[in-house]
Amino acid sequence: MKIVISFLLVMFALAAAGCHTVEGVGKDVKQAGIAIEKAAEKAK
């Protein structure tokens, strides 16, 4: 669980640094969601 939380914090930091527009935020959130889904599938 600590790994997932750490991963999410890193993704949030990268998303915050990488998005300069509302469209960029949407893309970053989508990618973070995909990463979370993949992590959840691996954890099963």
Question: How is the secondary structure organized here?
Answer:
Elements: H1 2-18, H2 22-43
How does this model look, in words?
The chain has 44 residues and is mainly alpha-helical. It has one domain. It has two helices and no strands. It has helices spanning 2-18, 22-43. Helix 1 (2-18) runs antiparallel to helix 2 (22-43).
Mean pLDDT, rounded to whole units?
80
Shape: flat
List low-confidence stretches.
none
Number of strands: 0
Give me the Rg, rounded: 11 Å
Name the beta content range: under 5%
What is the first-to-last residue Cα distance? 12 Å
Largest sheet: none
Structural class: mainly alpha
Number of domains: 1
**Can you give the helix content as a percent range?**
over 70%
Order of helices and strands: HH
- Per DSSP, the total helix count is 2
Features:
single chain; mainly alpha; flat
Quick overview of this protein structure:
By secondary structure, this protein is mainly alpha-helical.
